[in-house]
Here is the input.
Amino acid sequence: MSVGIGGAGSKLATIFDPENCTAVNISEAELGKVEATKHILAVAHSAKGQFKGSGKNPLVGKTASISIEEELLDLSKGNIVFTSTGGGTGNGITSVILDKISKLENVLLNDSTVFVLLLPYLNKEPVEYVENSIDFILESISPAIDSGNTGNIILFSNKLKFEHRIPEAEYNKMIISSLLEFYNIPLKNQELKLLDGHIDDEDFKIFTSKPYFNHFTIFNYTPDRPFVDLLNENMNPLLLPPEKPIEAMFLLEVPHESQCSYFYNILDYYSDDNVIPVYSVVLNEEISEPRITLSVLYSRKPKELIDDFKKMADRMTRKKLKKSIDQYVKLERAKLDIDAEVKKIEDENENVHGVLDVLKRLRKLR
Ligand SMILES: Nc1nc2c(ncn2[C@@H]2O[C@H](COP(=O)(O)OP(=O)(O)OP(=O)(O)O)[C@@H](O)[C@H]2O)c(=O)[nH]1
Ligand SMILES: [Mg+2]
Here is the structure.
């Protein structure tokens, strides 16, 4: 069962699990467009009536969650929750759910929730999406991970979508088919002839119920090249790159039984990092080359991600700032070198706090 919150979340959940998914939104129109099996409208009234969206404001989502949080918490148990981190509805409602989960005394293995998050692409998406995402990761995801109460957290990004100009619907299908490759590991283990190791539903559940970030990828494996090179070339381009792994799981499919022992190379690679993967090797005569579906869990906060996000948010804020000053002091243009002034202020203070500071300063300069 899957739960999709907000616009992007609802669309992804519906593709992932068309037979059994719940879509949640504060926008009736957006909710009506998704073919979910269950629809939940979160009540969010303004003076003008029910909101049609949060206007990228997570506070609206947070407030609206009051009407549905118990139901949603229940639906999330043992399931997968999809949301984008940039908008206001998915971000706001999911942050309330994460907060509730973080405060639980104890979460049973079968009750843990996997969170699939969709992050905006820094270079092409509005600054509000980027800022909302920073807040979400720092204020909701980090404490949830620290509480140990969530399942895996999977970080998809819209980077490839924007860089390769991929239509939204197609990109959503790419995200879900990649996710299904990972989720099909126990099924393949069960359906194909098992040659070594094994990953059953229980093993898979234990792995996905750990409160770490999950990066998974799939690629052809040939032992004539070092595993590390193949791995580096084949990170999942839809996901954020992983940090140092603390746990790993892989399914190796081989077309010939004689290739079964290749898996020892992969175990050797991870033993250098003191990681002992859960694995399964199966015979798949329909493929021509051995293929690996690999997942690593990493626990460090994606520091670089936050740094990049912050840098981009700063840059975007500065651009906005410059635009405002440009407009405000139109008549003064001849006297002032706006670029130089903005640069000077930036040099003095890394975190420029707002247009007001700058304007005050400019007035003083005149
Ligand atoms: N890949 C993909 N990204 C989407 C899709 N819809 C929205 N996004 C991204 O999701 C973010 C915006 O979040 P939405 O899910 O639309 O917002 P919301 O949660 O409904 O919140 P509101 O601001 O109230 O609309 C941005 O980064 C968009 O690029 C989609 O169908 N596919
Ligand atoms: Mg929306």
